[in-house]
Amino acid sequence: MAGLNERKQKILHAVVTDYIQTAEPVGSRTISRHYQIDLSAATIRNEMADLEELGYLTQPHTSAGRIPSQQGYRFYVDALMDATGLAREEEEYLTRFFMQLEKMREIDQIVQQTARALSVITRYTSLVLAPQIKQSAFKQMRLVPMENGKALVVLITDTGYIRNKVIEMPKALNQKEIDFIVAYLNKELSGQTIATLTAARLRKLRSDLYLHTDILNSMLTMLEQCAQNPENRVFLGGTSNILNQPEFKDVEKLKHLLTLFEEGERLTLLLETSMDGLSIRIGTENVLAEMKDCSLITASYSLHGRPLGTIGVLGPTRMEYARVITIIEEISQRLNKLIATL
Amino acid sequence: MAGLNERKQKILHAVVTDYIQTAEPVGSRTISRHYQIDLSAATIRNEMADLEELGYLTQPHTSAGRIPSQQGYRFYVDALMDATGLAREEEEYLTRFFMQLEKMREIDQIVQQTARALSVITRYTSLVLAPQIKQSAFKQMRLVPMENGKALVVLITDTGYIRNKVIEMPKALNQKEIDFIVAYLNKELSGQTIATLTAARLRKLRSDLYLHTDILNSMLTMLEQCAQNPENRVFLGGTSNILNQPEFKDVEKLKHLLTLFEEGERLTLLLETSMDGLSIRIGTENVLAEMKDCSLITASYSLHGRPLGTIGVLGPTRMEYARVITIIEEISQRLNKLIATL
DNA sequence: TTTAGCACTCTCGGCAGGTGAGTGCTAAAG
DNA sequence: CTTTAGCACTCACCTGCCGAGAGTGCTAAA
Description:
The structure is a homodimer. By secondary structure, chain A is an alpha+beta fold. The first copy, chain A, has three domains: about 5-80, Arc Repressor Mutant, subunit A (Orthogonal Bundle), CATH 1.10.10.10; about 90-130 and about 235-340, GAF domain (Beta-Lactamase), CATH 3.30.450.40; about 140-230, 2-Layer Sandwich (Enolase-like, domain 1). The first copy, chain A, has twelve helices and ten strands. In chain A, the strands form three sheets. In chain A, strands 7-3-10-9-8 form a five-stranded antiparallel sheet. In chain A, strands 4-5-6 form a three-stranded antiparallel sheet. Chain A is elongated. The first copy, chain A, starts with 5 loop residues before the first helix and ends with a helix. The model of chain A has no long low-confidence stretch (mean pLDDT about 90). The interface of A and B includes residues 164, 165, 175, 243 and 251 of A. The first copy, chain A, binds a DNA duplex through helix 3.
């Protein structure tokens, strides 16, 4: 498998690079002229025939140039690709962008804006997965009395979520009682994730606060809803960018992708399976059939080492891997820093 | 202009109906056979030639059938179209959907879900404009002290927005002072829209509460942000539905539309100009150049007679006008009722 | 082992011819 | 005067064909 001598690697590198730029099958002549490989077209032809037999290249038809196969891209990404830095204008754009972002305190907005920036800067479609409320830790919970027997429950998590819910307040409570309940809940729950609210734990809370069962129930209902309701956590950016790729001039393919983009649950699942560091899925390495002609590059972002969500870029298999990887890693790092300050 | 005798109207009606269904140019034979018009194809041909000369029909090329012109659709919508009721399954779907919706109390979610339902049921792309915070009236404002010198401002509007902002609390205030400030603000502002907060009004508030300038400033900052920050208020549903329309098999057209879909500000502007009852814009009647081959049907929804936002359906000019209009009117009415209960 | 040369293959664009749907016009029928 | 049948005509679309061009594989020489 790794049995590619240096010359073959050079040629494969040239083919991939060229094809990524032009989207046209690459011929032997092109390579011998445009790349620093001092070999004649004929020699390169022989090598390319070998590379095809080994599975790294394919021919769309007999008398066309070669294009990288999925295996070819994989080898390129694993062994050949040269790391690139951020371009200066990219760097500046990001700095400006994150300065804007610091003003926002709510994670929803941050995530949505990140998706936008990611697609603008890469010129591909971006997918961003927001943190799961369920896996977020309590920071604070508050109860705000309102008029006509209602009250507002406010929940703030360490991941930057602020969630409100209006509840009925079964009987009038004075401020002292409210303070007591809230203080108790905060003491008990602070720092724990919502998912750890097991039935046993709930029983304990209920018995500790047996004097205020009604109001406690209402507040806990909100938590349960947060734990159960799987709200849409995926944000897209630059959907129209796929139309710039010649491989998607076919309307049928497009339809499959655009339809997928509207299926929040499946996208969530997809991104949840990529929560560990950088991941590159090429073509059929993607589980979703709709993405068999695409590559997806993802990186996770985290708070205190705990992974919260994923940012990703989707493009054709003919993607500018090196550039996108650099950008994604940069953004995920900056996002980490930002979230730590929430 | 209105000089169409009954026979011509019947024929125009038949052409539009047929073309809406098939998307193929309609020939004279088709009409004479499939519609209750007891005329030979030849007669219909003559009438169709007249209709073309009058501008209601066009021919894609000399020896093809006729398709309605923009003017043809306009006449159809204004005079010919027969009103249809909701299909039973549509009715059932809507009832079920709005029962779900009643559980949600926040307007953002309601609006987003409405966009989804609208696109599912019409099988076109839907656009929904959420109420403007600025034009919403205060219901309540609250200040919740938090640890380490911070506090949470909560704003609730009559349109169902709940907005939070964490602010610095300049000096420690006791509960009594907080209660006083909040009570005063609520008394002063209740029932008024945020946009009415003129400079003069703000001055009065500041002088009335001169003892608490710092905290007041922080709270008012939030209101100013609500008034200024034009957040994205447009929600889309069923974007991929445009791909089912044969008129959009051309990737270039698609690109223009999809790009437009990402431009929130322009969409907002578009929908804001349709805030009065039902509106039907056919082809170039739409201001946006990207929509010159589309029709947009919109209806506004309101609270106590005050229009809050718009729901709309976007399709090709060859749209099922009657069906879509019925659905849009139904949904906007149900939405009105729902919002009144918030 | 590399390279030059050459025949071969395949795509693509343009062109010709046939087909079919639908028209406009004319003249006869009502 | 209106309607209808008939017929020639037009145009899109499909098919097959041809030549050009790009690129290959193979062979034989360097």
